[in-house]
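The instructor's notes for this session suggest beginning with a concrete chain rather than abstract definitions. Hand out the sequence below and ask the class to guess, before any prediction is shown, which regions might be ordered.
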Amino acid sequence: MAYAPEHAYDDKEGKCRIYDEMWTCDWWWETQGKLPKGATIAPLILASDKTSLSQFLYSTIRNIEKSMRHQPHKHAAILIGYLPVAKLDCFSKSTCSVAGYWLFHECMRQLLQPLVAAGHEGVEMVCADGQLRRVHPILAACVADHPEQCLIACTKESFCLKCQVHRDSCGKPLSLLLPAYNREGLHPVYHPFWANLPFSNIFAPITPDILHQLHRGVFHDHLLKWCTEIAGESEIDERYCTMTNYPGLCYFL
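After discussion, reveal the predicted structure:
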């Protein structure tokens, strides 16, 4: 467990910075400076997974080492709620999607309401080392698939979650963008659950969706197709067949 930010270096001179655990990163240092002296940050990680029946919402804290959090039998993450997956048949086709966004954010707002006061004022609690600290739980990361990330950030799935450049205007100055919701790729969610969360910028905690954005998006939809067009399917298949086995490699014949 870590209760304060640290600077880690790979050399004695302190020139080669190491970014590893959350407490070695700039976010913790910057947020720590916004809190009263003696405050302890509990960086919250929210993780959601949507099924056809419900949407699970889990939470953990980054004070715990990632090697510990990644072990299911350690129970470092807890289930904090089930979110409804409603068909919303009572809405028209043109408003059904936005209504789903409203429903999600209202449920999330009620679930996370205690974090507003706790993040601002802190809560005194006895930590794992037996010390009494004033802890400020602050949202630090949202782990989800790309569609759920867009749901959290109130953005359309065809737009980027990180930048404001329009999908049809990549590379053009930001001043050329129109302020309308559709042009910005936003959904009109007037009370997003993260609006009152202290010290949180919802677009910063969004983590990469490794499966859909990297493995499927970059590799499968682009690199693999390009290589197949250049070399041919038979050559690509032969290269895969000649790959040697090694631990950790998923090998399919």
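Then share the key points. DSSP finds eight helices and seven strands in the chain. The first strand starts at residue 8 and ends at 9.
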